[in-house]
Amino acid sequence: MIYKYSGHSGVQLPVLSLGLWHNFGSVDDFSVATQMVVHAFDAGICHFDLANNYGPEPGSAEENFGKILKNNLAGHRDELFISSKAGHDMWPGVYGGNSSRKNLIASCDQSLKRTGLEYFDIFYSHRYDGVTPVEETMQALIDIVRQGKALYVGISKYPPALQQRCYDILKEAHVPCLLSQYRCSMFDPKAKNENFQIAADNGSGVICFSPLAQGLLTGKYNNGIPAGSRAAKSTGFLQESQVTPERVEAVKQLAVIAAERGQSIAQMALAWVLADERVTSCIIGTSSVTQLENNLATLNNLTFSEEEMKRIDNIINQKELWF
Questions:
Q1: CB neighbours of 301 closer than 8 A, spacing ≥ 6?
Q2: What is the mean pLDDT of the segment spanning 300-316?
Q3: Lesser CB count within 10 Å: N end or C end of the chain?
Q4: 287, 323, 285, 305: which is closest to 48 by C-alpha?
């Protein structure tokens, strides 16, 4: 495994982190989930990314991770970097979502109980809700650290207009933002263009999610939409309408470059995200140990020649491809 320092901190993270957004909930195979977490740890992935609403059912990914940790990795807590987040809808009622102090502190307490942890290594505000003043949200994060419930704090998906204000509030309280989490892929360069440099200028690391564009950048949709895939589900984050002919054709062109590099399209897509020096880590989501192994093989080739980057840019720099 390769490790990088997060921003201006002394914390090193693996360049590939394991996310538990999908495939670790109560509807999933617990034995497979266990195998993936343990195998990831054995391969050097020490950072595991959670959120209170991950499942389904919401909260069940944290519960399952807590069981895996207790049964398989109990003696390795100090070798692990575990995150959770709050801000999206979690329980019924007016206090069950958003970015208020009420929601964040209650959510952190609940998440600690579900995982069985005494503290999180980092706790995030999962989103800006459009209503709560960032001063209130950041103060809640500051107090979570001062209460010993988290060692560090982070922000996720905050718009550029508010990102700097968050950093300023946290820095003034001597609880700097360790990580800024944003969606980024070859088909989704918005954060790369708008958020990464603000984070870097403020000493925050950047951690990316959805680097494979919800599976589009794996090639699985090159010949249609497979049954059981994310795009086949009406409630999924990848809709059938997003699997456009233009995106499929771009994936096929990118796969040619990947093959020349001795990689799969998915491995090249991960390497492309990591090629940005401002990125500390990339969160991968897996459904099997085999898929995890394939993602780990990305580390065998992380460098790009100027010619390769130009060819890739010529393919992906088309706004009709972007999410």
A1: 261, 262, 263, 267, 271
A2: 97
A3: N
A4: 285
